[in-house]
Amino acid sequence: MPIAFADRVIQRTRALGHPLCVGIDPHLAALPDLFRTGSMAPGDAATAAAVERFCIALLDRLAGKIAVVKPQSAFFEQLGPGGIVVLARVIEAAQNRDLIVILDAKRGDIGSTAEGYAAAFLRKDAPMRAEALTVNPWLGLETLDPYFEAAAESGAGVFTLVKTSNPGSGDFQDREFSGSSLYLHLADALAARAGLLAGRETGWSGVGAVVGATKPEQAREVREHLPHGLFLVPGYGYQGGGAADAVAGFVPGPDGRLEGGVVSSSRGVSFPAEAASAGSASEWEAAVDRALDDAIADLTKAVEG
């Protein structure tokens, strides 16, 4: 039986002493001149090659320093067929560097379509198999079952959008229903399924939740309703969430440090201001390393209380 996703994440973050996850979001406009080639138009084959070089170089900076990376599928899909090939290569390259991959694709559909997404990304023989996938639950709870089934087979995780950090998240997620906010009803439903992807070593579950770093009070509420599910926390750093807010839904672990998921930083680490004007590979590497070290130190302090 494969080691459960939640056990792998928690054991790695405990060993490293911090929960930083770095988003692999290759914004074409932000790609440093050092990596740019050709027209940089999305459909240009040279653009896909440039994105691949950038992503692999970034993975080399991250290896050994963090537990998890989170490629955003949209930035690869926009490149067309070549981008899908690059995404598959980036996933494989990350795993070859002993990095756990959460694919941020936010898939959500019914029946056989959900099964197709699960087969593409989560099953043991998936052609672009990631260790976890983000999913959208708003078509109904039964649409999540194919992901949970595939994840149970392969030892993967599933992160469901619960309380997101975007300004419009309250339009529906905060609506009151039967005396409670809709996102808390969803957290309750996920808690009832936590045993499907429970880790035997740590007690944490890969039935996880996406909970934004800009919503610390709501994160604490979600943790009360989903006590064992891992959190994927976007919105830290560039998007305005501070380290203390980002770990608001974490709880003390055996060593006293806060744990319970990973905190994602994308542009703050991948595209620091100093890296944009780097004239050489060594200058770019140094700029990324400084941004990475700063984020690690910030989150290490936050989980140590």
Instruction: Report the average pLDDT across residues.
Output: 96
Helix/strand structural class? alpha/beta
Number of strands: 12
Largest sheet: 8 strands, parallel, barrel
The proportion of residues forming helix, as a percent range, comes to 40-55%
**Cα gyration radius (Å):** 18 Å
Label the overall shape.
Answer: globular
Distance between the termini: 36 Å
Q: Give the low-confidence spans.
A: none
Number of helices: 13
Q: Walk across the major sheet and give the strand order.
A: 1-2-3-4-5-8-9-12
How would you explain this protein's 3D organization?
There is one protein chain. The protein contains 13 helices and 12 strands. It is globular and about 55 Å long. The longest helix is centred in the last third of the chain and has 24 residues, at 281-304. With 305 residues, it is an alpha/beta fold. It has helices spanning 5-16, 45-62, 73-77, 81-96, 111-121, 145-154, 170-173, 182-191, 216-225, 243-246, 267-270, 273-276, 281-304, and strands at residues 20-24, 68-71, 100-107, 132-135, 157-163, 176-177, 180-181, 205-211, 229-233, 251-252, 258-259, 261-265. β10 (251-252) and β11 (258-259) form a beta hairpin. Helix content is 43%, strand content 17%. The strands form 3 sheets. Strands 1-2-3-4-5-8-9-12 form an 8-stranded parallel beta barrel, surrounded by 8 helices.
In short:
With 305 residues, this protein is an alpha/beta fold. It is built from 13 helices and twelve strands.
Q: Any descriptors?
A:
305 residues; alpha/beta; 43% helix; globular
